[in-house]
Amino acid sequence: MLYVDGMNGVIGHPETIQWLYTLIGSKFRLVVKTALKLLLVFVEYSESNAVLLIKAVNAVDMKKGTNGPWSNAMEILSEKDGVDTELLVYTMSLINKTLAALPDQDSFYDLVDCWCDRGAGLRETPQS
Q1: Number of Cβ within a 10 Å radius of residue 91
Q2: How many domains does the chain divide into?
Q3: CB contact set of 52 (below 8 Å; sequence gap of 6+)
Q4: Distances (CA, A) of 91 to 5, 6, 87, 88, 111
Q5: Percent of the chain whose pLDDT exceeds 70
Q6: Tens-digit pLDDT profile for residues 20-47
Q7: Domain range for residue 73?
Q8: CA within 20 to 30 Å of 46's CA: 52, 63, 94, 108, which one?
């Protein structure tokens, strides 16, 4: 069951979204899986939430000083040892749902270019 008031509280509190994104960089599989699921629910709740997620991801990665955005997601996708297919599926689902909910093609291609520059071989195109 999804509580609308609770989701509106999360939407209005970007630090919560940043915290959830930070958790997908955890070394504990269950924490990562739960954070990914919660972020998926967040992005699916409203199309405008994809933009909020992107802003949160950029804020976290800027604070960490990483070499590009979506570093936590890219670490999951590039993991070679002990590959957990469930985490890969949730990570790619989050990426695809975020791309699908973007409001315009410029945002879509900016994000796809970012991921391709980071080594993710995304081959999706937006639906008009």
Answers
A1: 26
A2: 1
A3: 11, 14, 17
A4: 26, 24, 6, 5, 15
A5: 87
A6: 999 999 999 999 999 999 999 999 999 8
A7: 4-117
A8: 63
pLDDT of residue 125: 47
Residue 120, Ramachandran bin (φ over 0: left; ψ between -120 and 50: alpha; else beta):
beta
CA distances from 113 to 107, 108, 123, 127 (A): 10, 9, 11, 17
| Residue 10: per-residue pLDDT | 87
- For the four alpha carbons of 99, 105, 9 and 63, in that order, the dihedral sign comes to positive
- The tokens of 99 are what? 């791309």
Calpha distance 7→97 (Å, rounded): 17
Q: Is 35 exposed, middle or buried (0-12, 13-18, 19+ CB in 10 A)?
A: buried
Residues in the chain, how many?
Answer: 128
Torsion of CA 37, 46, 73, 116, to 10 degrees: 140
How is residue 104 annotated by DSSP? S
